[in-house]
Amino acid sequence: MPxxxxxxxxxxxxxxxxxxxxxxxxLEVAKxxxxxxxxxxxxxxxxxxxxxxxxxxxxxxxxxxxxIEAVYRNEAEKLAAAEPRFAATLEPLEALRxxxxxxxxxxxxxxxxxxxxxxxxxxxxxLMEGSRSLIRAxxxxxxxxxxxxxxxxxxxxxxxxxxxxxxxxxxxAQPGWEPSARRLVNILIAGSRSARP
Length: 197
Fold this sequence. Notes:
Shape: elongated
Helix content: over 70%
CATH superfamily of the largest domain: Tetracycline Repressor, domain 2
Structural class: mainly alpha
Number of strands: 0
Number of domains: 2
Largest sheet: none
Distance between the termini: 81 Å
CATH architecture of the largest domain: Orthogonal Bundle
């Protein structure tokens, strides 16, 4: 008896535009509420401020942990996605500067939601480790583009710049760390520029 041929599974449907808009709105509002209220943030409050029904929020994010993770991942993905956007609109050195300054903004925002992130299993470090390669790849691509353009010395090591920035980002508990980090971006770029004739 011939075996019945199985039909292939249906292709995955893209989320509807309104569902995607709802998800983005939830993530933006959740970031604000987690920043303000930390681990005590109310999911009902997030739903209300997003202008959606609670059931819609839970359809996108079944648990508080899932929402906290999604907020952080969304921010990391936006940071990485900014690199090719800057590359397409700015000169390589200015694109690198803009991305490094955005990285500082990312760390400033992350600092504000760490109390909520620390309530997850594995804490905030697990989430940061998970996005590290994505962020590093964007940074390395931006540095390499500036090297290829001749703006930075050919022996510039992206890792050296990353280490210098991470060093100042470990001082986020100290007052005035953010202006200091922004000044460091200019120092790092000036010290790595190629000596063009």
